[in-house]
Each structure stands twice: as C-alpha cells, then as structure tokens.
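tokens incoming
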C-alpha cells in the first residue's frame, strides 16, 4: 500500500453476523464501540444483521421463480388471440 493515503484509523476490524454468529476479520475505518478477542488478539467489533453466510441468495435457500413455466402458460392461454 502507498504510505499516507489511508486514514489513521484504518485497521483490522472483526465483523460479526448476528443472525448466525459468524465472525470474519477485514480492514476498515468503522467506528466501533465494542471489542472482541479472537485467537489472543483484540479487535474492534462491528455487528451486522446479514452477511454472505446468512443471506438466502448466497446460501442457496432462496426461492427461484420458474419463469419458463409462466411463459408457456401465458402462451397457451393467450397465444391465439392475435390471429
């Protein structure tokens, strides 16, 4: 990294997903009021409501709409009206 271009408080921060308890460490300038001990080191703690470990899209638990079935149903109902 180039020296002198990042803010002074750019440091490692622990982000905790509150829905499933998953914790990951990344660098950030976020202001955190709480701290957490991980592997003998103390990090500022940022709490999140959702992350990639609990989001339905990334976990594969989201419901996908079958658009092909809807299109076929539409064509079977209204396909002959234009003729």
């Amino acid at each position: 990294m180039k020296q002198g271009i990042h803010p002074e408080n750019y440091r490692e921060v622990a982000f905790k997903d509150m829905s499933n308890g998953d914790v990951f460490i990344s660098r950030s300038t976020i202001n955190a009021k709480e701290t957490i001990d991980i592997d003998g080191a103390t990090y500022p703690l940022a709490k999140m409501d959702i992350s990639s470990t609990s989001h339905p899209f990334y976990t594969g638990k989201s419901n996908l709409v079958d658009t092909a079935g809807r299109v076929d149903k539409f064509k079977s109902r209204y396909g002959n009206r234009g003729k």
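note: The radius of gyration is 24 Å.
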